[in-house]
Amino acid sequence: MAMLAWNVRGLGIKDTVRALKNAAFKYKADIIFLCETKQKKRYIEKIRMKRKQKNAAFKYNAFYVEPDGIAGGLALWWSNNVKLSILRYEKNFIDTKISISGETDWFGTFIYAPPYTEDKQKFWETLAPLRNDVNAKWCVIGDFNVVASPEEKYGGNPFDHNSAKWYYDFLDQTYLMEIPSSGGSFTWSNQQSNEEAILEKFDRVLSSLDWNFLFPKTISIIDVAFALDHSPIILLVNGVEKKTKKEFKFESRWLIEEECS
């Protein structure tokens, strides 16, 4: 089972829709979470229904949080292989209970953390009490809008210690840990080169110890972002089932090299 989480920065561009379809097909995603859609449910439903017509294997169910004007917006799609119940939602997250093919239930929270510093502390304080049981099987995935350490940043403004502190306070309260990702060091780029380049890691996956015991083969991948500033995060819950031909991987650090312009 695969989950795909992506800050698409709006679904009004054909290249973005094409990149989404390619990623969903490539990883055979059973759950797709899109944040910052900037589009009403009516428009996004047209995209979802087109996928169903072209590939009958992907018959997604859907839940949406409407954007505030042209800002924000969340979309959650899941296949018929997944039993998913919406427990709670706000403009920055969707909290769910999930079961795959009738197996053990677990909790999945799909987030788009606030981009503005003044809203970050309240967001983490709201998210932490979702699970009162430290032994809960819990996975959190999406755009965290926080750089957790100076090593997760290249260029731009100085490292924001306050945002990082509120994030680590959340980890201390929930006992969640980050699942290491392969495929790149950063998940966001300002798409500039040389001294103007800014690279940061915003997107990630957290999980509880009991969730890790439930899915010990889990792999997290940062994929290439074609025509988008954010990279998609892919979570392969059961790991890689079989060996495939090694793929070329694009390292986001190359964007700062003049030779790669």
UniProtKB/TrEMBL annotation:
SUPFAM superfamilies in the cross-refs: DNase I-like (SSF56219)
Domain of life: Eukaryota
Residue stretches making up the Endonuclease/exonuclease/phosphatase domain: 5-216
Pfam families linked to this entry: Exo_endo_phos
InterPro entries: Endo/exonu/phosph_ase_sf, Endo/exonuclease/phosphatase
PANTHER family tied to this protein: BNAC02G09200D PROTEIN, OS06G0205337 PROTEIN
Protein name: Endonuclease/exonuclease/phosphatase domain-containing protein
Organism: Hibiscus sabdariffa (roselle)
